[in-house]
């Protein structure tokens, strides 16, 4: 689907599609539909109305978001740095961080990474220091990241600057032309093709990993390579003794995680 959208030059509609397909818009429409049916078909109307209100409540809570994410995506478990110490059978290993957006910052007066991208880069730097493995970053300028007439730097260029100047941990490789996850995979594999890589440690958010792993496996197989791909998820909620009272209360974090989970699930279904 991404290839079709890009071929038609419709990259800019992807944020619009996300806004229309993700909560709260579909649930609001379901609520209106239930209310419209109340006079014509009261039993069906009440069923739809109560179901929509229940779904509203669920997706707004952290507990509901985690349940939804686990059911739809089954994200991988946290990676322990010690697991990276084992020697890869086919050659050396590399850590690849996937970009998650850039923004023109008034605070810094220049382009910087979004909080999602920064969280991934920080974790990649931490893993690289803990394991001694080289670090790469993949990210260009995705749809919706433009800022008027200022094209700005690519995510890769911004990440290289932040890693060098702020983390004091320079990147070994930078891929800075990709526009989405599919291109992240294709261009990263092309970049690393001649490096004799035996293991690729893929850093991105836990809910993004199922889709990212699929694209990297496809790109690896299409290139005729055989390196191992290891998932390194970011953003997994810390385990606790059980749900707390706050977990079942509506919150911005709950709806944000629900939207992220549904976005990634729709992306999997659409082949994006």
**Helix fraction?**
40-55%
The string of secondary-structure elements, in order, is HHHHHEEEHEHEHEHEH
CATH superfamily of the largest domain: HUPs
Q: CATH topology of the largest domain, anyone?
A: Rossmann fold
Q: If you average the pLDDT, what whole number results?
A: 87
Strand order of the largest sheet: 5-4-1-6-7
Overall structural class, as computed from helix and strand content, comes to: alpha/beta
Query: Uncertain spans, ≥5 residues at pLDDT below 50?
Result: 4-10
Outline, from the CA principal axes?
elongated
In percent, how much strand structure appears in the residues? 5-15%
Architecture (CATH level 2) name of the largest domain: 3-Layer(aba) Sandwich
The tally of domains stands at 2
Which CATH class of the largest domain applies here? Alpha Beta
Quickly count the helices.
10
Q: How many extended strands?
A: 7
Largest sheet features? 5 strands, parallel
Structure description:
With 272 residues, the chain is an alpha/beta fold. The chain folds into two domains: 13-74 and 252-270, no CATH class; 81-234, Rossmann fold. 49% of the residues lie in helices and 13% in strands. A five-stranded parallel sheet has the order 5-4-1-6-7, sandwiched between helices. The protein has a two-stranded antiparallel ribbon with strand order 2-3. Helix 8 (181-192) crosses helix 9 (209-222). The longest helix has 19 residues, at 252-270. The radius of gyration is 21 Å and the shape is elongated. The model is unreliable at 4-10 (pLDDT under 50).
């Amino acid at each position: 689907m991404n290839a079709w959208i890009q071929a038609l030059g419709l990259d800019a509609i992807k944020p619009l599609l996300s806004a229309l397909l993700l909560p709260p818009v579909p649930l609001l429409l379901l609520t209106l539909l239930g209310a419209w049916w109340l006079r014509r078909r009261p039993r069906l109307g009440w069923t739809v109305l109560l179901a929509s209100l229940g779904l509203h409540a669920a997706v707004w809570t952290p507990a509901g978001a985690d349940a939804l994410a686990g059911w739809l995506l089954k994200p991988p478990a946290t990676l322990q740095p010690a697991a990276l110490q084992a020697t890869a059978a086919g050659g050396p290993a590399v850590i690849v961080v996937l970009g998650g957006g850039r923004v023109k910052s008034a605070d810094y007066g220049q382009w910087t990474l979004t909080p999602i991208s920064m969280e991934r880069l920080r974790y990649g730097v931490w893993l690289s220091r803990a394991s001694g493995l080289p670090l790469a970053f993949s990210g260009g300028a995705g749809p919706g990241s433009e800022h008027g007439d200022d094209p700005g730097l690519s995510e890769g260029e911004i990440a290289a600057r932040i890693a060098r100047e702020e983390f004091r941990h320079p990147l070994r490789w930078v891929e800075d032309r990709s526009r989405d996850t599919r291109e992240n995979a294709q261009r990263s594999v092309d970049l690393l093709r001649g490096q004799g890589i035996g293991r690729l440690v893929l850093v991105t958010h836990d809910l993004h990993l199922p889709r990212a792993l699929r694209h990297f496996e496809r790109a690896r197989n299409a290139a005729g390579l055989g390196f191992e791909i290891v998932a390194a998820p970011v953003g997994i909620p810390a385990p606790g003794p059980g749900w707390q009272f706050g977990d079942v209360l509506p919150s911005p974090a709950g709806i944000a995680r629900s939207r992220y989970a549904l976005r990634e699930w729709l992306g999997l279904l659409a082949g994006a």
